[in-house]
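Anyone else keep sequences and structure tokens together like this?

Example one:
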Amino acid sequence: MKPNTFSPKRQEAGVALLISIFILLLVSGVALALVANSGTETSLAGNYRSSTSAYDAGFAGLEEARGRLLPGSPNSLIPAVIPAGVPLTVNQVYYILNPLVGEAVAPTNLGNNATYPDTEYAQEFPPLGLAGAIVQTTPSVWANSAVLGMPGPLYKWVRITAATEQSLNIDVNRDGKVDGKTPGTVATPLYYDAAPANGAKPSMIEVPVGGVPPATASQVFEVTALAALPNGTRKLEQYVVTPVTLNLNFPSALTLGGKVGTFVGANSNPYQVDGTDGSGNAPAVAGCNPNPATSLPAIGVTDPAGSTTDKTTVVSGIPRPTHYTGGGLTTPSVGEVTLNSTLSTPAELNQLVQTITQNADAVLNPPAGTSATSSQLPPSSIASPCTPSTVVVNGDFDLGPNTGCGLLVVTGNFLYQGNSGWNGIILVIGSGTTTFQGNGGGSGQFDGAIFVATTKNAAGNLLPTLGTVNFDISGGGGNGIYYNSCWVNRVQQPPSYKVLSFHEIAQ
């Protein structure tokens, strides 16, 4: 009999097939995992894209409302929708509606079939919610329209309301109660005090029922936007905002901050400087009447305590003393005044110039050795009637024989002629070469207030204290300078709304 034998090759038969099958299964598993992972990434990317698009749409709504709260905005809500200068009450609600073509958007409709209801309002302003609110609506600038064939941002509505401790769920005055939420308390509007009298940091404050907010405080608003995409993605976002305020209060018609180096008054008989409110012939400001009972010094100086050097310098430079009146002072009306915190130091004035620059309608930067001219001003600011503009000139400026209006900041030399005029505020703030100079006679006049201060040395470095200022009128000088509170306030209308906080509300 032939013995059984086993070949090593036969023992290994089929191993390669098993390995191939295993590798195939492994590769298939990896492939399936990659396909699944790819689908997950695609889904995540789609969700992220939808979330971002909804976020951006809501943000666009917030920014539209913030811009339209400005009186100077082309589509301003002031005063056409929201009365100017009248605080919003707790139960007032303003909606900006932004429907697509053929779409209905009614945030006050809280029924079962409501499409875009404002259910958040009842959370912030209980117990009556929208049932107890005074509601007013206005269309968005995008509503029922398309720009260049493309629809606008896909937010549906923006709500503007007065902020309260209850709506923000914050104990602002730290009395241990959230007014309106704590039993026995009443919600009242919040304000933002930009320059507290006690020197504290700017902060929100609550004004009790019947109380009057400080002059340095402005009301705080909630701006809430709902965005909704066609795929159902929604975002509810909210700003807490308050107007940017400059807090420019002037103690005289012409104020010279710091040491007076040179003062040369006008020679002409028509030229006067008067601190009595509304004493000039300025165009009327709608809704405002000057108060002649307010009589400030014609010229204010800031002599150190116990010194009259600057006052003496100014008085000795006045050719016609009886033409400088106001403030209950003997003629010429030159008084020692105290500057408020906004105008008192180079640091504060430098910050003021930066704030104005950030919100200016025009910023002019003339090359060294040259002057910017009135031809570079916004045309509407020197038209008749004019529209106030905020203009900053980083250098010298020549107004020429023109009359303009607004808030004008000049950091170099301000040159004007006898026929030059301005309604509003002129701030000559900057280097040690700052000079206010007038040439020739004419009929131009300045109504509002003028402030001159040196904040920087010749090298452009900020001084520790106010430097030397010069005021020189060579020749006739026009009709003079007249204090006018209406124009001072008119050109300080909020240049912007500061965002105090931003958050997304969970849906």
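And example two:
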Amino acid sequence: MKKIAILSDFHCGHKVGLTPSGYLPDDPAERRAGWIKANKAYYHWFKRHINAHGPYDIVFINGDLVDGKGSKSGGTELITTDMEEQCDMAVKIIREIPKSKSCKIIITRGTPYHTGNDEDWENTIAERVDAKIGEHEWVDVEGVVFDLKHHPAGSSSIPHGRHGGVARDRLWNIMWNERNMQPKADIFIRSHVHYHNFSGGPDWLAMTTPALQGMGSRYGARRCSGIVDFGFVVFEVNKRKYSWQPIVAQLEEQKANLIKL
């Protein structure tokens, strides 16, 4: 039996990105800011739950490990614009995940806006944690083939359409496989959209993973309407049989405030 942790969208460096201890501001005025309280709550929840379900034999990390330079917001939403420091955060998070002695790590590259238009900063992270990295990966675990890529074929602004993009990816895989150009996959893992949804049938499963960036980005607050899911997914695979569980938080720090006049 193999236990697998599937994580994505750390967005290290962002104020509500996943931030390990030692990287938040020391300034007392900054420490009173609401985002710091939320950030601490996110990481505390992550550490408690990733440890509770481990150790893991395989860790899949599906893109957007760092947030980038924040050019669209002038860097105002970042803890740091230093890409080396953002990579340090991601490396520390990955190293602290409980693993078996023979644990394998697979990383898929995320969005160039976050991870580098001119260079892939996730390559640096992969090298430091001894991970295999690629754009689109197929991995056979105990006879179950996982198809891993950061971007789904599409997202949706309506609740009942959110599973459509990953279901479409499954159909494309069947067509590529008929041309003998891709392995036929059983499980399709996509990320990027920061919500967990899934679809499937008797012999396949497709999902988008929860994110590990909390709510509070300027883009999300001003442009997005849908539910955001914070968390990760755990699989257990044994001789072509599998079970899975989404581990999703419901944190008080994510609740909207009501203004009473």
